[in-house]
Each structure stands twice: as structure tokens, then as C-alpha cells.
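Quick question about two entries, pasted in order.
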Amino acid sequence: MGTQYHGTPDETRALDAYIKLMRAADSVTGRINRHLADDDLTISQFGVLEALHHLGPLCQREIAHKILKSTGNITMVIDNLEKRGLVTRERVATDRRFLTVRLTTTGKELITRIFPRHAAAISKEMAILNKEEQAELARLCRKLGLGRPVTDTNSM
């Protein structure tokens, strides 16, 4: 269902596209992330584990930036992961204001076990689009996310 707003044709088209984008994103995200409940993880907790798995130890601010969450929210997420023994926090010796977050052995084992299932779910969902459509969707999303035209197609 598109917009019920009766504005200018440009407004109506933009609102309609936005509604479809948000509904598609919510729908796909819900289907992809169903498996996280099996391991009692939220989407944000999975995002932290995945970021640490692929990027190595990070400070909380970097993690918040990577998974698009506020620093206040990320503190609670990391608190809960730490309580479960999946991550640890360590003060940075050179600047005690910063905490480095690391995966524990248990955290590494968990993300190593569940990430392939996650990647397969994404691949399955995206398979409704052919290769060219996936590339075009990626380009359009990047353009929309940056808020400007994208000229370099290699930096997606």
C-alpha cells in the first residue's frame, strides 16, 4: 500500500517509494533475523558480535558507529553480552577513558557457528533479485544513504 497523502506528484511519488522501501526492509530484516532467537540474541547483539568477529577488537564508539546505534544503546547491548560471557571490556592503557571490547572464546564460538546461517539467509532472501538487480539495488541504496549521486561504482 502506498501513501494516502494527496500532495504534489513529486511528494506522492517520494512518499510511496519511501513506504515501500521501509516495508521491504522491515520484512526482509524480520525473515533474515529469525534464527537469532534460537541463540537468544537481539539484532543489535548479533551486530556487535559480527563486527568484532570481522573487524577485531573495537572501542564502544566504533561499534556503535558500525552497527548504527547510539553510544548509550550500545552500552546496554555490550553489558548484556558481557553478562553472558560473550565479550569482555578492557581499558585502553594509553587513554583510560576508552574501553576496548573483545570477543571471548565463547563469543567467537557462537558467532562462528551462527554467521554462516545468517549469510545463507541473506543470500536466500536476495536471490529473488538477479545479479544485476542486486548490484543496482546496492548502488541505489548507497546513493540514498549518502544523500548524493554516486559516481564510483567500485566503492560499494
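Here is the second entry:
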Amino acid sequence: MIKINLLPYRNERKTEKIIRFAIASAIPIVLLILVMIAVWGFNKSQINAVENQIAQINSQIEACALQMKEIDNYKIKKEVLTKKMDVITSLTKGKDGPVHLLDELSTAIPGNLWLTAIRQKGLLLEIEGKAIDYIAVSNYMINLDKSLYISDVDLKTISSDSGGPKDAKSGSLKSFVITCKTTNTPEKTG
């Protein structure tokens, strides 16, 4: 009888199956590792791209912050210059005011009246003077009221001087105090 040894064949087949199983098991693991490496590389490149964008945005923010500082400095300079221009404008508008005011005060004086004192506090003007009669004081107040640079004319006090020189008609001079408001620009129209 012929004897056939089947043992080595089975052992070879068994080892082949083990090797096939090992290879079949290793291939998905290797593929999984390769996929994980690819995903990690993709994520790393995205992270680097986002970090670069963040760095660019931060540099743009710094540049904008510098520009904002310059803009704020320009705004401050503009405000200072605007205030200076406003002061210059008000000074140029007001430079003729005192001249016009004194002219109005002197041209409004009727005959038989003269001024002894003029005091100004802000826009309030106090005029002291003497007159021969009450009509001269009244005419002076009417003339002041017609002025473009004077408003709110009011007679504060009027009295007869007993110790002063005497007028032939009324007997004594009249002392008066008139208050009014002034402006540097004409307020009344026509």
C-alpha cells in the first residue's frame, strides 16, 4: 500500500491561511494608519492656513490701530483749529463793535445834555450824565433806543442837583443813570 504523507500539506496550508489572515488583517490597519496620517496632514495644513490668516488679520488690526491714532490726532487738531478759527472770527466781528457803540452814544446826545461816566459789564452798559431838563434825558433815551447796537434802554434814576449850577428855566441840572444792553453787531432792522 502506498502511503501518502498529508501532514506537511496541512501545515503548509495552515501557515498559508495564517499568513493570508495576517496580511488581510494588516492591510486595513495599514490603510487606516495611512488615512489617519493623511487626515492629520490635511488638518495640520488647515491649522497652518488659519494661523497665517490670523497673523495677517492681527497685522492689519495693528495697521488700522495706527491709522485710528492718526485719525484721532487729526480730529483733535481739527477741533483746536476750529476753536481758534471761531475765536478769530468772533474777534474780527467784534473789533468794530466798540467803535460803533461809542459813535452811537455820542451821536444820540441831544443838546442840553452831557455824559459824565460810562461803565460796561459784559453786555450791560450804564450811562451817567447831566441834563438841563427832563426832555433832554427823554430825547437821549429815544435816540439810544433807535440805535442798532443798543437795546433795552431803561432809566434807572433821575434827580435834581441841588448843589450844582442853576439853569435859568428849570432852576437846577438833572443827574441821570440809564442802563441798556449792547451788542457788537447790529440787531435791529430798518
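Reply: The longest strand covers residues 150-160. The beta strands are 113-121, 124-131, 150-160, 174-182. Hope that helps.
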